[in-house]
Amino acid sequence: MNYNYRYRLNPSDDLRERLAWTVDTCRQVYNHFLHRLNRHDDTSSYSEQKRLPDLKDWWTDLRDVHSKALQKVVQRLYDNLSTLKGRKKNGYNVGELKWKAPGEYQSFTYSQSGFKLKNTSGRTRLWLSKIGDIPITFHRDLPDDATIKTVAIKREPTGKWYAILGVETPDNPPEKPDEVTDAVGIDVGILKYVHDSDGTAVKSPDLSDERERLERAQRNLSRKKHGSNNWEEQRKTVARRHADLKRKRRDFLHKLSGYYASEYDLVAAEDLDVKGLVELPGNSWNRVRASWGTFLRMLEYKCEREGTHFVAVDPRGTTKECASCGVETDKPLWVREHSCPSCGFEVDRDANASWNILSRGLEQVGTGCPESTPVETALPTDTDSVSAKRVMEAGSPTLKERTASAVSE
Length: 409
Description:
alpha+beta, disordered C terminus
């Protein structure tokens, strides 16, 4: 499996200047080959990389940049071009690749060679060819059998430097269970970030103080003369406020997604069109801040890592459809309770949606069944559950008996 591990670098002033020079030189190389790309139609990543040795004859500064880092610059250009063509093919309006200004190119990458982790007197350092040994905050160990394949060096807007180690382990991810014994459906929202089918509701993190500090810093920045020393200092302050907000939000998302991936055999979530939701009128700012897309991506790759089934189900109708009888009922967003006019089933709106998501997920996977599902204990006594039927069809011979027993209580 492939993983990325991110570590903080602590370079000295000399090393910091050397890193900044390398980033700027890579930026100029990117612009050089972009100029060639605009003039010649028969270029490719491989053919342009072959030109690098001859380029060093007259551009002597390139001799002080590792060859693999220069090759990755050319590959980065053609990867961007491929992405642009893919979006155009899918119907998006796209422009052309643009030259990178000094503030728009902030990283470079080593692949296969030119780097090494060293441990001297208990202190870990990252050796980079043509740059030197850089102290690194090695806050967590790599897997024992991991091989470092790439090292990406990145400068954040705050001015801090980070190393992203791309490692590969020989072990494949655990196999997903053939029989699901513990499953959960997750409905995401704004006030309650998640409400799952086990009845657990998690509130959205309160980041109002961080947002207030960010807004205050942005107002102060707007009063500075653009490009002045005071403006630059305040720009870094704004960047630090953004970083604080991002770090706390991602910490919450990592812990939440890690919990679901490790505690369940199957996790069902909505396959949300986050971009489309953000473009809807009204409340779009809260949808942006919720970072649903980031959470679902974290959940997906962590389920893959833990050997957990991850199912993205069609979200249409999960809120309207009654988990008890299947009748759809329109309800505005501010109505937070589900009350079915057909069967009289009343429950929290988000809980109803999570049960529908779970049943759709089990139906989609078609393997095993959880030992206990929310619909077993929350249905009216005189109603057959549509969600329970779906779960039963997924393969549990005793679910009907358990449902009848729970309802009778």
